[in-house]
Amino acid sequence: MFSLRDKHLANDIISQIKKAEVHLKFMHVCGTHQDTLVKHGLDRLLQTCGIEIGQGPGCPVCVTTPKEIEEIMVLAKEGKTIATFGDMIQVPGVTSSLQQMKAEGCDIRTVYSIEDALVLAEKHKNKEVVFMAVGFETTAPTTAAVLLRNPPLNFSVLCCHRLIPPVLQAILQMGEIKIDGFIEPGHVSTIIGVKPYEFISKNYHIPQVIAGFEPIDLLMGAWMLVRQIQQGKTEVENEYIRAVRPQGNKKAQQIIRQVFEQVDVKWRGFPTIPHSGLRLRNKYASYDACKRYEEDLKDLAEEEFAEPVGCLCGDVLRGLISSKECPLFGCQCTPDSPVGPCMVSSEGNCNIQYRYSKK
Question: Confidence class of residue 115 from pLDDT cuts 50, 70 and 90?
């Protein structure tokens, strides 16, 4: 878990937090943070210090809506070649999943990046290849970069990209839970930098720390939040200075703005969140699967889709309950037989809790 040097540092951090005698609830929005917390027992360690850290909507597969799942499955039924990530293929829809459809003969391809999907389209000009693009600000630049290269016309994107700062605001505005501080995702922050989070601290008086992914990073993130609270500060601190620059990655930001525009979208478990999604600009409409295949998708346009019966992924994503509080967890819902996406994705709270509780 720790090197000898890190053990000494971890003990010092824990000692300082215990001296503060706090009872605080923090939230992070990153699947990798959750994995580190649970894998190394940091969640339990911090609880002995009076700190609870829960995962919010930080899993891109998990927050993709049931309607978006149905859209990609309709396109598969219509004979399109669907390319997306392995976790996405396993997410249950209303009556099926991409994995089941593949077994029934639909052309579903697992890819590791949009580049893989592009190569597929270039090699098979007779196939209509649709890439299901999920992810936050971290992966949006890769989608933008491919579209800027004028891909072949048999290639399109079902865009499901979402943005982190607006969902943080939505959580606070909903007021369902008390949050004393946010631990912000390192990967997203390498792209957007520090400034996009500042309105949260300014308007809602919430301290924030951008943290890396090693155990020491998360312990330091927790301690930095405690220190802000002790000092009466509410600002954005950057613990992950070895990777995150204050201004972020300006080139990546530029191509995101060039290809996408911000739109209001729903997230799984949330109502419509203003300016929290990305849509292709009109200049790239020929690569927008929703527009290209509008006729195929028209029956879904006004339809609403509920969560699977008994699934509480929405409550987990909003931080209202832990995975273990869902009555389906570990019995009806397992990685081999998932009911909801939080049990499917390797970044999902339920999947992470299940994997490490077994150990």
Answer: very high
Domains along the chain? 4-60+165-238 (3.40.50.11750), 61-162+248-300 (3.40.50.11740), 313-357 (no CATH)
For range 209-216, the mean pLDDT = 97
What's the pTM value of the predicted model, to 2 decimals?
0.95
Helices (H) and strands (E) in the chain, counts: 18, 11
Contact 258, 144 (CB under 8 A): yes
β-sheet bridge partners, residue 110: 84
Q: Is the pLDDT of residue 359 over 60?
A: no
Q: pLDDT digits over 169-180, tens only?
A: 999 999 999 999
Distance, in Å, from the CA atom of 80 to the CA atom of 107, rounded to the nearest integer, reads 7
Taking phi over 0 as left and psi of -120 to 50 as alpha, with beta for the rest, 212 belongs to beta
Taking phi first (over 0 means left), then psi (-120 to 50 degrees means alpha), and beta for anything else, what does residue 91 get? beta
Cα 6 off chain centre by: 29
The DSSP secondary structure of 45-87, one letter per residue, reads HHHTTTEEEEE-S--HHHHS-HHHHHHHHHHHHTTPEEEE-HH
